[in-house]
Amino acid sequence: MDKYSLLPEQLLYEGTITEDQFFTASPLSEAAILRTHTAEYWTKLSTNTLSVKEVRAIGFPMRPDLIERGRVIAQGTLDCARYAFRDGVALNVAGGTHHSFADHGEGFCVFNDIAVAANELLRMGEVEKILIVDLDVHQGNGTARLFAQEPKVFTFSMHGARNYPTRKEKSDLDIGLPDGTGDAVYLDTLYHHLPKLLDGVQPDLVFYLSGVDVLATDKLGRLAMTLRGCKERDHFVLQSCQDRQIPVAVAMGGGYSERLATIIEAHANTYRVAASLFA
């Protein structure tokens, strides 16, 4: 949890962003929750009556303040999308809770923030087509399931093939990478697929999940990327969107390196790249 307060402090300290570039989200409305998640799941969350098994699947004890935090994160990703329409890019310090399904949470994910945001934008007619670029090291299984029957949302997940979750869902495009994949193979794979997706799908908006658990230092990652390679990944995604004038909303996703400083540096690079490209 420390990274969520330390990252903004670092970005302000070094001058990458200024105070007036921050926004604060309100909690997501119950109506918006129920357009992505089931009423039964929401009732269990709001009354703190999840079963022991359901809580274990999420991975941390459920408390009212954590539910509220999840609502703010989800609204923040929706707000980011709308800021991106204006500014080209916007970033959520948190978010990327892609293991949350309609009726349950998994893997430290309670609400699926990108799915909630995508559904709200489609409902309001603000977009016709969305591309989700999920480059967290873990497959976005909840997101894949939620949009399996939605042709207006294309889900792309590039992840560790042998990593969590053991049982993968089917995204519109899944690329499973072997353990130990480093910068060269990772980036070549991304260079090959992303431009074709952007040109083929022609989305009105890209949601980019920029997890830094792809690093070799990550305790849960199993890949072997460097900080430099991870930064180049972010640059390529954001530059590719900018070149095509496609707004991009970024959620930070996972990062579990031993040294907190490594996590902050990797996430900060995403902001540094965005600031340099969209200044």
UniProtKB/TrEMBL annotation:
Keywords recorded for this protein, A-Z: Hydrolase
Enzyme class: hydrolase
GO molecular function, one term: hydrolase activity
InterPro entries for the chain: HDAC_classIV, HDACs, His_deacetylse_dom, His_deacetylse_dom_sf, Ureohydrolase_dom_sf
EC number(s) stated in the UniProt entry for this protein: 3.5.1.-
Superkingdom of origin organism: Bacteria
SUPFAM superfamilies referenced in this protein's UniProt entry, alphabetically: Arginase/deacetylase
Histone deacetylase domain: residues covered: 3-268
Pfam family, one: Hist_deacetyl
Family assignment from sequence similarity: Belongs to the histone deacetylase family.
Name assigned to this protein: Histone deacetylase-like amidohydrolase
Native organism: Neolewinella maritima
